[in-house]
Design brief:
- The complex is a heterodimer of chains A (112) and B (115).
- Chain A has 112 residues and is mostly beta strands.
- Helices cover 0% and strands 47% of the residues of chain A.
- Chain A has no helices and ten strands.
- In chain A, strands 2, 4, 5, 8, 9 and 10 form a six-stranded mixed β-sheet that branches. Chain A has a four-stranded antiparallel β-sheet with strand order 1-3-7-6, with no helix packed on it.
- In chain A, β6 and β7 form a beta hairpin.
- Chain A is globular, with a radius of gyration of 13 Å.
- Chain B has 115 residues and is mainly β.
- In chain B, a hairpin with a 4-residue loop joins β8 and β9.
- The chains are: A mainly beta (112), B mainly beta (115).
- At the A-B interface, β4, β5, β8 and β9 of A face β5, β6, β10 and β11 of B.
Chain lengths: 112, 115
């Protein structure tokens, strides 16, 4: 597609439920990032996929968080047993050669 | 490893005044540098970037940034701001690592333009 597409745009879930957030990067982009932005906070790096290399998972806050990227394209971020502190905007970005990153509009997650 | 420091969390400025948002970085490798802007309730948009060549880069809406290798800085400037420039601005650095070009952000600077 023309840009990075994220779905859903908004998600309200009950504490303890699992959620899946989806990211469709720009076609052909080999690098894909997930970031989290909490109210009044900066951008917190979560995970980074680059081509066929092993993903950099160093930013995932706990083992309740996981992400995969199928076929080098679509990525899914999964949060298990959601907690209220997981409430944030989850941003996805993609890049071809690291010379420019295009961000999606994000998924606003609210855990109630 | 690389890091980005944005010393000013908030910068208030009057309309039509000049502004400078500071950004310093550290990296052991050559870097690409970026400024992103986030308008209220919107996503991140690329404002400008330095990849190579001329150290002064400009955006379409009057912002400019200069890469200073000796001072490891990439400060963002605008000679005359407008109310519509009110937003949060993020400086970011991308450096070549073993796994590719990883992007690291600063903590952001909230620019508030007042009448």
């Amino acid at each position: 597609g023309a840009g990075v597409s994220q779905s859903p745009s908004n998600k309200v879930t009950e504490k303890g439920k699992d959620v899946e957030l989806r990211c469709d990067p720009i076609s052909g982009h080999t690098a894909l990032y997930w970031y989290r932005q909490s109210l009044g906070q900066g951008l917190e790096f979560l995970i980074y996929f680059q081509g066929n290399s092993a993903p950099d998972k160093s930013g995932l806050p706990s083992d309740r968080f996981s992400a995969e990227r199928t076929g080098g394209s679509v990525s899914t971020l999964t949060i298990q047993r959601t907690q209220q502190e997981d409430s944030a905007v989850y941003l996805c970005a993609s890049s071809l050669q690291g010379d420019g990153y295009t961000f999606g509009s994000g998924t606003r997650l609210t855990v109630v | 490893a690389q890091s980005v420091t944005q010393l000013d969390s908030q910068v208030p400025v009057f309309e039509e005044a000049p502004v400078e948002l500071r950004c310093n970085y550290s990296s052991s490798v050559s870097v690409y540098l970026f400024w992103y802007v986030q308008y209220p309730n919107q996503g991140l948009q690329l404002l400008l970037k330095y990849l190579s060549g001329s150290t002064l880069v400009e955006s379409i809406n009057g912002f400019e940034a200069e890469f200073n290798k000796s001072q490891t800085s990439f400060h963002l400037r605008k000679p005359s701001v407008h109310i519509s420039d009110t937003a949060e601005y993020f400086c970011a650095v991308s450096g070549l690592t073993g796994g590719g070009n990883k992007l690291t952000f600063g903590t952001g600077t909230q620019l508030k333009v007042e009448l």
